[in-house]
Batch of 3 targets.
Target 1
Amino acid sequence: MKEIYFARQPIYDRKLQIAGYELFYRHAEGDTSAQFLDAEVATSQVVMNTVTEVGLERVVGTQKAFINVARDFVLGGHLTNFQLPQLVFEVAGDIAIDEPLIQALRDLRQQGYHFVLDDYEDNEAYRAMLDIADYVKIDMLTTPEDEVRRLVPLLRQHQVALMAERIETQSIQDFCQSLEFDYFQGYHFSQPKLLKFNSVPTNQLSVLQLLSKIYDPKIEIKSIETLISQDVALTYKLLRYINSAYFCLPRRVESIQRAIMLLGLKNIRSWATLISLSNVDDHRSDLITVALERAKMCELLAEATGFKQKETGFTIGLLSVLDAMTQAPMEAILAALPLDEEVNLALLKHEGPLGRILACTLAYERCDWEALDTLGLDSSQINDAYLTALAEAYRASYELLKG
């Protein structure tokens, strides 16, 4: 199972109560600072890992999460998938500020997004973005005290909260409090704490194939559904995303088709691009074939037995290899993937109609005739479903894995 690392540093309000956390990218467990990495990749990893895989509530609870955002990330439209009240995006001090970026941020601001101007300097570019920002950060190590005294009343004329960062001594804290800053951050209060979570790896080949297809202007929704359904980890990440707090759906979504219809082509493109930027690992091709076999057979058996949602049968078969693929207990994996209890029971205990369908598929796969539950079907129907699934799985996995 792939490990996710990032650091979390508290941000305090005037009463020195935690008001939020800034999240930093980390490449490995021993890192004390971010290793060199393209800013867009680092941003996408933090956002994806936090919001769609780990779960924002596990990292910051009900507090706000502050995440640095890269220029290309904004201009590429990727923030459109992450309008959560808890998320605040930091515009870094070294970002290239021009009219396209300002307009993109202004549009996002009107949609309800929240931004911080980091490492504020009193220049024309930064002043042009004051109407976009909710917060302004001043670096207390690099900004002289006289300049801080001059900036504070100027910034108070705008509707922004003032945040003092890199506070490393009691005297700097006292100075900031005397100027009535709204928020405080720095090593004097707390150093960034490394957090580690586990993630399901994604087949990079399938992601690349997906990306190469979805940007085709003639692509059809059905083709996208086929591409995503060929990879178990992509299915996992898509369902995790569509069932996240951002959408607040009244019912959980277990169908790839339903998830795609709800998201739409534009959001699917952004989602898949973010997945590819996360630089995730490949996984074993043999398990991909097994997953596709089970998925198709479960779908065919669901249809043959009159189960109304045959797409959910496909999902059950696809997810049934997650434990082998990630080398982690199925219970732990399903805890991170919000599915209906019917689906969980089918995967964990082979209970319910879906569970019986999965158990039948597994027994036939293993030639365990004593354990085989025929589901009230003729043996020829089960055999036909197996052979059809086998043929389609090998064809699909070949297309997926060929160079």
Target 2
Amino acid sequence: MVTQIEQVEACLETRGLVEPDQVDGAREVARGCLVLSSSLLTDRMLLHSGFIDALSESGPVDVWATSASNPKFYEAWKHSRAQISEFPDVLAFREFPHNYLRRLNEYAWDFRQRPPSRLSMMRHIRDRNAHPYVRALKTPARILAALRVERAFEGWLERRLRAYERSPEATRRFKLNAPDVLLCTNPFWFTEPAVVAAAKREGISTLALIPSWDNLSTKNRMLFKHDGYLVWSEAARRELHQFYPATRNAPVHVVGAPQFDLFFQERFHRSREAFCQSQGLRPDLPIVVYALGSPNFLVETPGALHVADLVARGELKDIQLLVRPHPIHDNHELHELFGKFGSRVVVQQTGVAGASVTERFQDQNQIVEWVNTFRHADVVVNLSSTVTIDAAIFDRPVINLDFDPAPGQPHQSLIKEINHLWTHFKPVAESGGVWLVNDFAELVNAIKTYLVKPELHREKRRSIAEYVCGYLDGSCGERAARAVMAFVEEKRKAQGSA
């Protein structure tokens, strides 16, 4: 019978990660920095910011990416200074006791801290979808919160989860070649924490990059404590300390938003004429971009369909509508839905339709499309999403829906709470830098007004971008790399003086 370790060894050999004669002589060697990526949003940061080049100046850089199975991924990375490998296989936690205890822990922290965003989601979404045995955890969670023992419970749970082997392949890789530090770029997702646990069992230091401004206040809790953290802004640092008190004793580096470094690189800029030609648009007519969020959360397509109908019927005069799906959730059916509205309505293809979420990847053409969509938009319409920041960086007028565009408005109260209660979006929605609209009539008026007065709310838009991103200098990738290098240098000094 082939053992699990033998299967892992064979897998490693097949993927070219080790030579066959290395398998029997497992060794531990410090090899610079290992970066994990399980999302195209972090892939494009690693590929197109200055992070990898800057980090490689201090030693070798390895990247384990879930999108490495996509042939386009290797083509994009062929000039990178990093060594690229496929992401190791990851197993799920057991539903009981692991996921059961995780949900208990999350409820305990929610009842102890009372975070507006998560309590709102609990009321409107999670309570409706959760299995009765999960909802039953609320009672013991309230007891844990009342006794103020949530930190002790989470510490116990972390040790238990860390001990559970979810990635034997990652463990084997670490035994063969241990990096100085592991950088986890998606600490809230399913895959990367499994590798983090393997690293921790091998005594490897870990850093966590908080990859987006909403993660701290909306996502399920990070499974593991890290030795240091990278965040976008001072606001994110405050939220990190608020929601994860243990981080107050760890180094937290404010590095900006590396994924937006691309906006400042002229190599991705195209003229309006060239961009419009690539999209089937006319450069002489205004472009209204309707950006859709994740369909897993809210149904936003009816709003875009309504605006498309207005454009097709000429009720917004001579304008064009460019519908931009979320790059992780772009599916071909959107093209079919909007195809009936004629040449004035265009749907972008932002991702590889049909591919799994973790395997999706954006090639350079899609990056150019992303950047120039917001460079050349005359108005951006969205529903409480990060594209508000994309638009603000380029000083594009941005309209935010303050109502549910779906028939019957099933999520009207939830959307109001997102805009006026949720930790990450309330400061933006109420900043004066976005135009909140309460129905389609107000939306039409806002579009028409912004097309005549694009300078309206300009100073507030700049304030939004600075508040969320921390830095707007196009050098956040290099800043993040310097933070990682500083951590490694401090680690080496501590080891040398020990």
Target 3
Amino acid sequence: MVISLKELTTKELLAPGHRLCAGCGPSIATRMALKAARGPLVVTNATGCVEVSTTIFPYTAWRIPWIHSLFENAAATAAGIEAGFKALGKRKNTKNHIDIIALGGDGGTFDIGIQALSGALERGHDFVYICYDNEAYMNTGIQRSGATPRGASTTTSPAGEIIPGKRGLKKDFIGICVAHQIEYAATASIGFPNDYITKVRKALEVNGPAVIHVLAPCPLGWRADPINTVKLAKLAVQTTVFPIYEVEDGKYKLNIRIKKPIEVEEYLKLQGRFRHIFNPKFRDVLEAIKQDITTNWERILRLCNVNP
């Protein structure tokens, strides 16, 4: 299944004039996702960059029903919306379907909101959860999150003379979601819009919960030129830093096969948050990052039953 341009909504459901940064990856991810809308749509949005910058009182950039959730309860809010529409349908004896999207950043998803998401997935509520991943708490000061990769310098994992940025691996968010035995989960990148929008449509068509994890670079937090946002989103895939795959009924499928990965240095050198790892004293950190990438890519290939 590949969604065609004719199937996309021509309406801009996220209006121009919001106050997100130039080159903002999450704004691109949000706009693309809304292009996959099939009909009536409600969005609940966790606190974060997208929420605060699109709804500065008394203005809103949303042209659809939209609800602000707290950091921790976007999935619970989506579950409540779904339950409310079900009850309304029974009361009025109607079967009108409403699509529901819960939207949150990596901080509000990988960390603060994981309990509400886990509960909603376990109960089987019919909604799509989209995590726009910019790999840190960008809205509150660029603190590290469970999605921050090894070596990245943030305000709570600063690179210095001794500590080389964040220590430890990025959380396997899709693996956590798949463990709930949901019908559909997928990774995506704003650098590959057709793949991403198609996956959002597939997720909306699932009768039950579905999850999309989309990489959405942040120029401010990544200390990158805004002109390179989409380039970075592509390079993350082309270097196998961020594998693109989907899981349908527990079966993994690789969507973008990278036969000759680009050297990861080409990706890292465009980001100020990794500048320190090119210092010879942190050479071991760069090698550890490379090993993380290789290990994870090989793991995904095995899960997808694809030969290296």
